[in-house]
């Protein structure tokens, strides 16, 4: 019960600063990034689209401009947690191997029809959190989990299905990537990749056990997908703790998945403390989270939809500053997209969250949109314009506070 409550909190609206910036606010500028580094702001079709073709609506001059090929380069995600219900009803969606063939066919249609205009393809969004939330805890679609007094799942098995769904997602990506590389990449000159939600993990205490558990939870959340991409197999600790419930790759499947990403997309929202919990491994009918053998404690910040979103400004300054540090250390980072351009329908919290650079007044029948302070900061940063002295002073103060926390720096 306690673990479930904690995990629900973990996936609530949180935006914590994980990074350390060694330089003051005055030192951060767009010029510190390579010319080909891509900045942007993200959104998702389902989460923001209105009734574009309803009630006789016709194209506006903005529609015409947007479709003329000027100002914006599309980075397309093929799967944003929205599997057709028909496939879920027919064979169980991602828990069935049949989904691999159907996803590959769908992906090829997209490559064929839009590949002349799309150069960056992400096959699946946040696959690691998708399988935990949808197939273990059952908090999100398709709401499959073992019987629980907390979640009203009508079907599923939290002990096996998270691993099955993840396995088939890896195979689906590998299959789609093979089709793209064999039939379209040479002609269209695009790249294909994958997206994961990366969490910041900090030991709850300085004990050896808690420090070591950081590595284990990283293997279960990140290595779960990255190890197959790099080595063609799952991490050893996952094999040990999950046993036969973790699917095995055949040699052919291993070859299909290994090396199948041209890039990795990373989403980041929050961090939390972890504590070793070996007793979880003694439970019968363990689920994925029991296999990790860890307790989570998340520090949350209050939701703030104010137009003066100082915490967001500090976050953006610190996070973008950390990318400068990463580039200087030799990491091959290619871009950063803010989530999100405007307030959206969020997958966990609906319209209660306010992630947007632009605030949307949901009580206004015209859904009035207003730029937040973070929009001003981001715009000025990208254009190389001077910052408001008040903003500069605040971000300098925030950077100074963060620089005195060694654990946050070690977590980057």
TrEMBL record:
<dbReference type="GO" id="GO:0005975">
    <property type="term" value="P:carbohydrate metabolic process"/>
</dbReference>
<comment type="similarity">
    <text>Belongs to the glycosyl hydrolase 1 family.</text>
</comment>
<dbReference type="InterPro" id="IPR001360">
    <property type="entry name" value="Glyco_hydro_1"/>
</dbReference>
<dbReference type="GO" id="GO:0008422">
    <property type="term" value="F:beta-glucosidase activity"/>
</dbReference>
<feature type="signal peptide">
    <location>
        <begin position="1"/>
        <end position="27"/>
    </location>
</feature>
<protein>
    <recommendedName>
        <fullName>Beta-glucosidase 11</fullName>
    </recommendedName>
</protein>
<dbReference type="Pfam" id="PF00232">
    <property type="entry name" value="Glyco_hydro_1"/>
</dbReference>
<dbReference type="InterPro" id="IPR033132">
    <property type="entry name" value="GH_1_N_CS"/>
</dbReference>
<keyword id="KW-0378">Hydrolase</keyword>
<dbReference type="InterPro" id="IPR017853">
    <property type="entry name" value="GH"/>
</dbReference>
<keyword id="KW-0732">Signal</keyword>
